[in-house]
Amino acid sequence: MSRSSCIVRQAASTISRLSLEGIPPSLYSERLIERLTSVQPSDLSLLAAEIRQTSSNSGADAFLWRALAAHSAARMGEMEPSTAAFLTNTFVRTPDDRFRTSEELKGWLRAVADMLTKHMERGSGGAAPSGRDVAIVANALVRLPLALSEEQWLRRFFRQLSQHSSAPDGIAADGVDGPAVAMLTNAMARCGAVGREDALPAFQRFSAALQRPRPNLMAALELRSVAAIANAYAHFHIVDGPLFRLLSDKARGLLAKRGSESGGEDDSAESESVSIGAGGGTSCVELGMLVNAWARVDLRDEGLVREVMGAMVSRGLVHVGSGTIATVLNGLAKVAVKDEGFLSAVSSLLQERLAARTAAYAPSGSAPGDSNDPADVAAPLTARDVANATDAFARLGYHDPTYLHFVAAWLHAALEELQPMDVVALASSFARLRFRDQPAFHVLAAALKANIADFSLPQLAAILTAYARLRISDTRTLTSIAHHIYTAITPQRPGISPRHRRLAARASRQPQTRAAAAAAPSNESDPDEPADATDVCAMVSILSGFGRLDVSHPEFFDAAGGWLVRQGVDSIGTSDLREIVSCSTPSQPHWPPA
Question: Where is this region: Disordered (predicted)?
């Protein structure tokens, strides 16, 4: 055993003992720094691994990790890229959240990113990092709870990574393996610093590398890597048919190979962002990711979808988290695959979890998230999960009255959890399924009134359409919506949902629209500014809904008519004009306006 290895083991043992004895870190900090200084740079990764094995997640451990990160950053110049990559991966996987949000870790990450950026820019000598080293660091950077997306050094790293990946002699040609491609594509999709135009050349290179028969990069891919690659391409909406077919074949082969396995892993501990390159094994999260990726790019692969459903059932649905179930259901709805047996089994499981969550909210019950019911073990049900699952059932035309009644009972307890998108999804789903439950709509109305300023015009239109389809004349709620829109579109008031309008403009693929949106001040809104087509269509739906429900609010109809006139009749289709005129009733004498 080398002297450095002995020092590493002694340091780890001493630190572990002092930590367990509860000795304050300040009493042995100088001794710790001395030990770290005597460790060779190449052995710092070994020390980190030893510390992680003996970690007790105490305050002393947090101090130790911070000291090690700061010391390692100071010695970056002496370190091989592979050592830096290993250290980064170890630091990020440390369970101590105090360290994961510390300035010392942030300083280390910046040092590593700067070092790799310089290498990719061909501006430094020394040992060049391999594609896998860069992939490990990139994947680690997007796993942290830090708000790193605003950091210039991080944006510079990912932009340089994108450019380097698209070069003929870049990472894609650097002998990179399949899991590294999964880590790189996953990181670029999640970093928030790379746009589609920047990512496209790099992803084309990765696609070519994955489809080459020699070397066969697909051979080493686990299911989570296949899912990560597919979702990364879907994120940038890069519809590469040959690659998706290859990924589908690989995924189906892996699922068939494991089809005989029963009792899958719980995905309760899995993050929504799956750990890529962490070794073998598969949780149920990847199954949801697979269906989601194909659905996002509108590729209908019924064979893959049925393999995923079969894998979920064979492993036991009880092991599948509610978020994953909602994701799979959404994918089924997008590709229009309706399997009554699977939907019935999922509905029964969700009913159990809804009952457990409803009981957990009861005054005599445990706090939400503390349920011991086996049906709730896989993952506590959230409002988003319920809304997504119910929306998927509605789009598939799957009507289970028992499930809907469980949702209605759960709603009363989950009022404070409901966000605007949840209210819209549930109201629209109830309307599609003809579930006319007045108490449930009273809860949705309460959630609407509590946060009405956060609802966009299209969201309000969807809610009104649901009320109109079910003929629910809740006068107070409808009047509240009418008054809110009236005050928003009156010339003396701010325009309707300026935040949503700016977001829609920035999301436009037209450079002129994006540039104009970026140049516009974010804290001002002109009521006479032309609205986008989405808002115009939403206003038409709102007027139609009010007309069908015979709502009397003359001031609103006058204001809405004036608002539509300011948008220009050319922006309103003939059928929409007929619908607007037909909404006039004797109770609205001031509509349509002169």
Answer: 257-276, 494-531
